[in-house]
Design a protein that fits this description.
By secondary structure, the chain is α/β, with parallel strands linked by helices. It contains seven helices and four strands. The longest helix has 19 residues.
């Protein structure tokens, strides 16, 4: 089971320095991504914000989100059924054990908590600071 954070999704659906690696990782595993509703929120917002800042042409965020939804329909990713209460409780524990020493953002901790709760075999990210709390809870990065 593969989980990803928004940095991985952003590279997968928008061309940047990590895009080739993101595609390679998915092709190698041939497993669908398991995402949380928080991935949907943060990823969609990141695309819209990039468009707002002029980093993408007008309408590109909407096009990329259509491609993202098409990949869901094709079975390339699906949403987990982890409850928000369980997710937040796990994130609080991970934050308490890691954030003072590592300076982690709340959304980053939530992605790690999600991967841990769904017993992910691998956590995909290009935010290398996230690997510390992920590895601390036993995730492969």
């Amino acid at each position: 089971m593969l989980c990803a954070d928004t940095s991985f999704l952003f590279s997968l659906y928008r061309r940047d320095i990590h895009s080739a690696e993101a595609r390679r990782r998915l092709i190698e595993t041939e497993s669908p991504l398991i995402l949380s509703p928080l991935n949907l929120l943060e990823f969609g917002n990141a695309l819209r914000l990039a468009e707002f800042r002029g980093l993408m042409a007008g309408g590109d965020a909407k096009k990329r989100l259509k491609g993202f939804e098409a990949d869901r329909a094709a079975g390339r990713w699906h949403l987990s059924e982890v409850s928000l209460a369980d997710l937040v409780a796990e994130a609080i524990q991970i934050s308490g054990a890691n954030t003072v020493a590592g300076g982690h953002r709340a959304f980053d901790i939530l992605h790690v908590a999600h991967a841990h709760l769904v017993t992910s075999t691998e956590f995909l990210s290009f935010d290398f600071n996230q690997f510390r709390p992920a590895k601390a809870v036993g995730l492969n990065c």
